[in-house]
Amino acid sequence: AGITNTAGLSLTEAVEVEVHDKDSKTCIYAVLSVNFTILYEGNGTTENATFPLPNSVSSNGSICGGNNSAPLLKMGFGTGHSLSLNFSHSTGEFRGDVLIFTYNTSDAKRFPGAKNKSVKHVAVNSLMDSTPLHTIYTCRSVKAIASEAVVMVFWNVSIQAFVENGTIGKNESFCKADLPTTVAPITTRTTPIVPTPVPTKPPPELPAVGNYTIKNGSDPCLLASMGLQLNITYTENKTHSVNIDSNSTASGQCGDKDATLVLEDMDTTIQFHFIVDQSKFFLKEVKANVSLVINGSRTALNSNNSNLRFWQAFVGSSYMCHKEQSIVVTDQLVINAFNVWVQPFQVKNGTFSRAEECSLDDDSILIPVVVGAALAGLIVIVVIAYMIGRRKSYAGYQTL
């Protein structure tokens, strides 16, 4: 796949992207402005890194999609950073399934003084709504998405996947934030068009919370309480969601420096590996073996990621997070976790110790970051609107 970046939108830090197929025809088109704010651990302090998606990005890893693969827009930049969005379609609509932001705290320019230098992944539900095929999804409003220690602020977004014969659609489907109550969701650039209602697949129900205990002899040594949902991307441009049964069989082992929790649910086995680093514990590795029946035949998916750093707290305490979290195991498997409460070390009297809450639950930290980032985006938009107003309009696609 090829990629084209235009510098005409540099004032807003917007990036215009065209991914091409083997015949050099456009298969994915996107324009977007993004600002990243990341909390990371420095030398004894919590630091704040803020930077935009730059105009110069790489297309390595982007996929047009076909019978055996789903379309993927992947924009790489800097030292090991990338923003990617995979797409699927059904019943005349396309949508973005999972948005994944990868960042590398070894990048001293963006993360000066970072204590833990590693590559991290953050996965969230897509920022875009389901959109009719051959139509551009457009959202000029500012939207902030928060997950773990990352806040992403988007604005001036236009995306079209499954571009037919390299011709970008002329119709726009506006996001709800851009729509007055009297405006139809689908419009052309000149004349409003009322869309034909299309049935959509209801989202999966939230998983029930399971309570799991691992014992060393007769004494509990690992406690866990959480709801788990697997989001599996496989061939034929489809994503399948599976909720793990809260009554899954739990097994594992406990040690002074490492502990393992294994959950078995029918044809699914998930292994969580925790370790101790200095005075803190965290989730280091996830292994998953999943068996699915697709089109009448059974398919096995084996996924493993040993470069994680989730659910971190001081040894002797527990980790708690009520908000939804996404753990990227591989490109094919993302685990969404709900109402997590874990303690893999130094369990006393069979009960959880004092809980350290995640940054998502700490509104005193997260809300100012989100609001500040959103306000910064709004200020940029006002300045750009003024600059654009002084420029002459021209034919073709509208500059965002």
From TrEMBL:
Gene3D superfamilies: 2.40.160.110. Coiled coil: none annotated. Keywords: Autophagy, Cell membrane, Cytoplasmic vesicle, Disulfide bond, Endosome, Glycoprotein, Lysosome, Membrane, Signal, Transmembrane, Transmembrane helix. It is a single-pass type I membrane protein. Residues 207-348 form the Lysosome-associated membrane glycoprotein 2-like luminal domain. It comes from the Eukaryota. The chain crosses the membrane at residues 365-388. It is found in: Cell membrane; Cytoplasmic vesicle, Autophagosome membrane; Endosome membrane; Lysosome membrane. Disulfide bonds join C139-C175, C321-C358. GO terms for biological process: establishment of protein localization to organelle. Its main location: membrane. Residues 367-398 form the Lysosome-associated membrane glycoprotein 2-like transmembrane domain. The keyword Disulfide bond applies. One of its GO terms (cellular component) is plasma membrane. It holds the Pfam family Lamp2_2nd. PANTHER family: LYSOSOME-ASSOCIATED MEMBRANE GLYCOPROTEIN (PTHR11506), LYSOSOME-ASSOCIATED MEMBRANE GLYCOPROTEIN 2 (PTHR11506:SF6). Belongs to the LAMP family. This is Lysosome-associated membrane glycoprotein 2.
